[in-house]
Design brief:
This protein is mainly beta and 191 residues long. The chain is built from one helix and ten strands; from the N terminus they run ββββββββββα. Strand 8 (105-116) and strand 9 (122-133) form a beta hairpin.
Length: 191
């Protein structure tokens, strides 16, 4: 098509992007991009239907995302996530890496793609997340892509434009510069 294989829907991509604020417990303000060149990125459906994604290589990272009540994850937004197993009635999220994890977690995540094989194992998965260690204010944001066919940037207001573009163009505000439009912050009504 003249555009290149990376733009073709059948071209599946695996990577992990992490961005943290200064003072955040896991990366302490650092940004990190992990690809297959950094180690093997794997994913599996774990206990209670949770999605487990991990990278083992020069760095070791583990991600656990799950729906409330242990249901199968589906595309959509999962608010008020906590660390498993503290609440079966809420979505759960856990991130650990570089030998550091969190005892208590708050956050949210959005599943962009979740395709399962007939045996229930994961074939393709894409998610964005916001993770707070020990309920602390500094955030870790991440994008996980496991064989994903298309990883789209966050568009929390559904206007067809990535939040980053809305913020840069002045169509949305971002008072606490976290890359999430203020109208889409937890507790806010999305227009």
């Amino acid at each position: 098509d003249g555009i290149g294989d990376a733009c073709d829907p059948e071209h599946n991509v695996s990577f992990i992007l992490l961005t943290s604020e200064p003072g955040e417990a896991l990366l302490e303000g650092e940004d990190l991009r992990l690809t297959l060149g950094d180690g093997e990125i794997q994913a599996a459906v774990g206990q209670g239907g949770a999605m487990e994604v991990w990278l083992d290589g020069l760095e070791s990272w583990r991600f656990l995302l799950g729906a409330a009540g242990g249901g199968q994850l589906a595309p959509g937004l999962y608010e008020m996530a906590v660390r498993q197993p503290f609440s079966r009635s809420r979505a759960f999220l856990s991130v650990s890496g570089r030998g550091v994890g969190c005892s208590e977690v708050s956050g949210r995540f959005e599943i962009g793609e979740a395709v399962f094989a007939l045996d229930g194992q994961i074939e393709r998965f894409a998610a964005h997340f916001e993770h707070h260690c020990e309920y602390d204010a500094p955030a870790l944001w991440g994008t996980i892509s496991y064989n994903a066919s298309a990883v789209r940037e966050r568009d929390c207001d559904g206007n067809g434009l990535p939040d980053r573009e809305d913020i840069d163009a002045g169509r949305s505000t971002d008072q606490n510069p976290n890359g999430i439009a203020d109208a889409c912050e937890p507790g806010q009504q999305v227009p």
